[in-house]
Each structure stands twice: as C-alpha cells, then as structure tokens.
Amino acid sequence: NHYRPLFIFLGFIAIIAGYIHLTILINDFGFNGLAKEEFSREFGKGSLSHLQNMGRLAFFFLFVDFVRHRKRTILILLLLIASLIFIRQVKYHMIILLLGSIYFCNTHGIFRITIKRILLYCLLIYILFNLTYVIGFSIIGYENLHFIDIQKYLFHHFIAYIFGGPVAFSRVFENAAYM
Fold it and tell me: pLDDT per residue over 30-83, tens digit each?
C-alpha cells in the first residue's frame, strides 16, 4: 500500500507517453502501418519510449496490487500498459512481463501456482501470441484469419516458439567442448 501511489503515477506517465507516441506514429505510418517493422522500430525509440518503459516496472507491482485487492482501476491501468507493450508485436516482451509477474506473486506467497492456473496462463499466453499475428495479418485482410489451416499453423508455431528456446539451449550444452 505504501508504494501504490508511486507505481500508479509511473503507470499513468507511461500510458500518457505511450499513447502520445502511438498517435504521432499512426499519423506518420497510418493505421495499417502498425504491422510494419518500421513502426515497431520507431515505437521503441526516443524520449517518449523511455518514459513508456517505466510502465514495465509499474506492471509488476500493479499486477501484485490487483491480485491482492482486485481494484478495477488497477486492472484498467494494467490493460493500458499491456496494450502499449503489446502494440509493438514483440511477443516475448509481454510474455516475460506476465510470467515475471506470476513468478513474483508466487515467490512472495500472494498466490500458489496450481495446475488450473498453469493451464489458464498457458491459454492466456497463446491468446497473446495469436493476437500478435492477427495484427500482422491485418494488412492482408481479416478474412484470411478464419481459415482453420492458419490457426493450425499458428498453434504449431506457438508450440515451436515455446519449446524452441529450451531445445536450442540444450543443443548448446550437448555440443559444448568443455563437457
């Protein structure tokens, strides 16, 4: 409770800076430009981007505050911060924040991780993963997103994405000269 005003303030500053930056870039690139790599690069540059990054720190503590007190205003702040992080379409930025927040809550005894929660968080991560591609496919047209083949491909890509890091890391250890 002592630090809540600080993190709410940091969250507000990050949200204001992020949405100003987003508005400027939408004026430059257009709404369809959100899916372009140039947009992502520009959204990560400049003083507004640095102010927006304060929201990442605030996210961890606001997540804990929301889990403890269930205040709707904190949830709205979390969703606004998450949308600014998510708009760059870099999946691991949001996934790491979410997993870090869950880990933070677990290590501080705020809640226990159960099988039900693991499945729920996996589903949430898959939805976030899928949404990044929906934004990218918006240039092609939304009618292409309803095909089952694309959703099957995205699911397989998600599985490869999740297990690709540990598999590649294990290959490094298998081929290491010092082992």
Answer: 877 777 778 878 888 888 888 888 888 898 889 888 988 989 999 999 989 888
Whether the Cβ atoms of residue 120 and residue 163 lie closer than 8 Å to each other = no
Q: What is the pLDDT of residue 143?
A: 65
Task: Determine which helix (DSSP H) or strand (DSSP E) holds 117, and give its type and residue range.
Answer: helix 115-137
Instruction: Specify the pTM.
Output: 0.70
Residues 6 or more apart in contact with residue 6 via CB below 8 angstroms: none
Q: How many CA atoms lie within 13 A of 52 on its CB side?
A: 24
Closest of 155, 34, 149 to residue 83, by C-alpha? 34
* Cα–Cα distance, 34 to 42 (Å, whole number): 11
What single DSSP character describes residue 110?
S
Least Cα distance to 49 among 79, 26, 22 occurs for: 22
Structure-block tokens of residue 69: 């007190």
Burial class (CB in 10 A: 0-12, 13-18, 19+), 38: exposed
